[in-house]
Design a protein that fits this description.
The complex is a heterodimer.
Chain A (H helix, E strand, L loop, with lengths): L5 H11 L1 H6 L8 H9 L10 E3 L5 H4 L2 H20 L8 H11 L4 H28 L8 H23 L4 H14 L6 H9 L6 H32 L5 E2 L5 E2 L1
Antiparallel strand pairs in A: 2-3
Helix pairs in contact in A: 5-7, 6-7, 7-8, 8-9, 8-11
Chain B lengths: L40 E3 H26 L24 H9 L2 H18 L18 H20 L3 H23 L12 H22 L17
Classes of the chains: A mainly alpha, B mainly alpha.
Chain lengths: 252, 237
């Protein structure tokens, strides 16, 4: 291939190196064969179909709500890990860490703002995604199972957001969790026990903070990653997005 | 055709002697897989990936712009002895908290959320009206009477429990449905968007309307003792 500029020349040479070719074993994605290989030869991209219907790329087909939800999850994972470096799940250290993020850590406020904003948006995006899929008839056969996975992912998203709500250990956090977990005790027969189990005590305290921290940073993200993988994979296996023709009927 | 367990799936005949030529059954127009023409396709790499990348960049730029100027709230250190009035849950649970104001905790906190989740899960397993026939197209007067009876029962229940913020969106949807029926009976073929909606559409729209109204009321219109306040500061008593 003729090189036209020093940049593309360097890129070409880089692509020719043994190291590059050991990572990306296909050649440059210039034929449909290598473009296919780019998708199903990659662990991360093989969830996607090699080909998509042109119509499913239109904004109105999905508003990219599923993608946006996932991208927000990625942003939350990255900012979340960065916040973990500055956070101790203990009373009252947790609150002191919030103050440190504000006054000591460089860009600490920005980091926390980003995490919180993305979290609120993710709840909105996941809800909107579900409603949009419903109105498109995206739950109908053969998409039944993936719809159920989606409903579980919505619940996981809500739990992720809710467990994160306690972590700053300020008045807002403490009373929001107190109000929320009080509802649990309304459960017949097992309500008090379920509340005790989720808080690690009879009141919101240091044990509750530790439990919510572990759920928020380890358990729920792992469940979410697993279910997101199943969800993506099934979108492809079930035949892609549900599209509609001009009459509002589902089309293939 | 032998007995058909699921009319939306094709299958191989089990007895080759009985049905020697039949390899696969395709029923009516209900299968999404055989309806219409195959639309044109493009390679995911690069057409889909470039769009995902653009979506990601737009999202990150937007988030950064807002996060630079809009600070996450931080109040005083948690104090179990000082209860704020009102103590509010996160915004996405304020709809439930608003329900708790009207109904006993068992109903508002456990039964209603469980019912919502269960119904969301089972939606796709009832192959009811899979072609999306308009709600008002079936039954004529009978549908109307059943609908009116259901609307009346719901209205009475919410008046009896004084659940005004549930009643108003519910009856708004009821009125919209009656309005769409009038439009439907005038001209069924050329009817507009609303008259052509199936029942599932109406149920989901009702659910979303109630959920949004409850959440907005819980977030902006509730003050000390869960009394009604105006977001701009007035107290309605």
């Amino acid at each position: 291939m003729a090189t036209t500029s020093p940049v593309s020349g360097t890129l070409e040479r880089l692509r020719g190196t043994r190291v590059w070719r050991s990572i990306f074993r296909r050649g440059p994605a210039q034929t449909n064969r290598t473009r296919s290989l780019a998708i199903f030869g990659s662990l991360f991209l093989h969830f996607l179909p090699v080909k998509v219907r042109e119509k499913s790329l239109r904004i109105r087909a999905s508003y990219y709500l599923g993608s946006v939800s996932f991208l927000l999850f990625v942003i939350l994972a990255v900012t979340g890990v960065m916040l973990m470096f500055y956070y101790h799940p203990a009373v009252p250290d947790a609150y002191r860490d919030m103050k440190d993020l504000r006054f000591v850590v460089s860009n600490g406020v920005f980091l926390r703002n980003l995490h919180r904003l993305a979290a609120q948006l993710m709840v909105l995006a996941v809800f909107w995604h579900m409603f949009h899929v419903f109105y498109r008839g995206g739950y109908k056969p053969p998409h039944e199972f993936n719809w159920v996975v989606g409903v579980i992912l919505l619940i996981v998203t809500l739990f992720l957001s809710y467990t994160g709500y306690l972590l700053p250990w300020d008045q807002l956090a403490f009373w929001a969790i107190t109000v929320g977990t009080n509802i649990l005790s309304a459960m017949p027969f097992i309500g008090k026990r379920v509340r005790f189990m989720s808080l690690g005590g009879n009141n919101v305290g240091a044990n509750a903070l530790l439990r919510f921290y572990v759920l928020h940073c380890v358990v729920l993200p792992l469940i979410a990653v697993l279910l997101i993988a199943v969800h993506f994979w099934r979108v492809q296996k079930d035949g892609g997005l549900t599209l509609r023709d001009e009459n509002g009927r589902a089309e293939k | 055709m032998a007995e058909q367990k699921n009319k939306y799936e094709g299958g191989f005949s089990s007895d080759a002697k009985k049905d020697p030529v039949r390899v696969v059954f395709i029923t009516k127009k209900t299968s999404a897989k055989v309806q219409g023409e195959v639309s044109s396709q493009v390679m995911s790499f690069p057409h889909l990936l470039i769009r995902e990348a653009i979506a990601f960049m737009v999202l990150v730029i937007g988030l950064v712009c807002v996060a630079l100027f809009w600070d996450a709230p931080l109040e005083q250190l948690a104090n179990p002895l000082v209860t704020p009035n009102p103590a509010k849950a996160p915004w996405y649970f304020l709809g439930l908290q608003e329900l708790l104001h009207y109904f006993p905790p068992l109903v508002a906190g456990i039964i209603i959320p469980t019912l919502v989740i269960v119904s969301l899960v089972v939606i796709p397993y009832f192959n009811i009206n899979i072609q999306g026939k308009p709600f008002w197209s079936a039954g004529g007067k009978r549908t109307l009477w059943i609908f009116l009876a259901a609307a009346l029962v719901l209205t009475a229940a919410f008046v009896w429990t004084r659940a005004w913020t549930v009643l108003v969106p519910t009856d708004a949807v009821v009125l919209l449905m009656l309005y769409s029926r009038r439009a439907f009976s005038r001209g069924s073929q050329e009817a507009g968007y609303l008259p052509r909606r199936p029942l599932s559409w109406w149920v989901m729209t009702w659910f979303i309307t109630v959920a949004v109204v409850l959440t907005v009321v819980g977030t902006f219109f509730r003050g000390p003792g869960w009394s009604w306040v105006w977001p701009w500061g007035g107290h309605a008593g």
